[in-house]
């Protein structure tokens, strides 16, 4: 929650309030743990100081009123993430949140005992090289990720109202590595002049056909294959004027590809060499994946090896919910996911059109408790369907091409104590 402009809107407010009301029925030994990144005020608002929290509370008063009511019946604990790092730097926040029965714990790691086993809980920013704080608790010791978010996301927060639609507010839902392509996609499908889009559309759609035509023409000129299947085939010969129009489009496309495509490839190759010199690209030409789950799985494995009493390793940060067995004794790793909108990249069916980012939600929670001599982990999803926000052109170019289903999570997982 948090931000300016459209980012103040909370898509899941009704579902979250209903969830909190249900928790009021639990006994006093129940604890709700919110594993960091509750707020996005540090880089997402022009308000400064402790007043930033009041700024968010005013925008989401119904949620905080319900947190106060729920927190009177059960314990509500809030951890600190990289997007609300200020919570770990100023003890005043502890008192401010306590007024709503929220116990702020700025520790990087929390441990909860269950029988003679332990649950390890962290947000996970310390395992992300771009968002790990060099001196945790120091408000001026900031990671690279802070400046990236401050530059891109804070601008989106303040200027989201100026777009054709409020798509810019969803920048929080896009993986770091996908932001440039996501911006290009929304520019083409939403912000580009309608006339310009329709002028470009046939050329972009026929780009693949154009490449085949160029290769066919090269083979014909070289005397290797004297037949261009694009223009000279029984079907095209019956199309008359359509055949001529198609030839004109492909001919223009061919000129553009030769005049601009080849120089663009040369520039891209030189750019990749530059990125490699700055260590932003590996020697194999692969850009580092900032959204990778590998550092967290490695961290969990290390925790399990160092302390065989840890049965569950919990983190958040990457927004991708999952539960996996890992470790010599069948320990469990949990990623809590996010209640933010999820945007999945879906490539178009044909042509060189930008990919489409398909919206969905995965509102969920994990419930962990001891039953007899077992640790039981229940996974619950709360249904939510996104509003119809894709344009008809976006739906058309991905027709039948749906995003990959998220990793399935078992409804119940049992660990013997």
Automatic annotation (TrEMBL):
Domain of life: Bacteria
InterPro entries linked to this entry: LpxH-like, Metallo-depent_PP-like
UniProt entry tagged with the keyword Membrane: yes
GO cellular component: membrane
Single Gene Ontology BP annotation: lipid A biosynthetic process
Transmembrane segments: 198-225, 245-267
Gene Ontology molecular function terms on file: UDP-2,3-diacylglucosamine hydrolase activity
Organism, scientific name: Bradyrhizobium jicamae
Keywords assigned: Membrane, Transmembrane, Transmembrane helix
Signal peptide region: none
Protein name per its UniProtKB record: Calcineurin-like phosphoesterase domain-containing protein
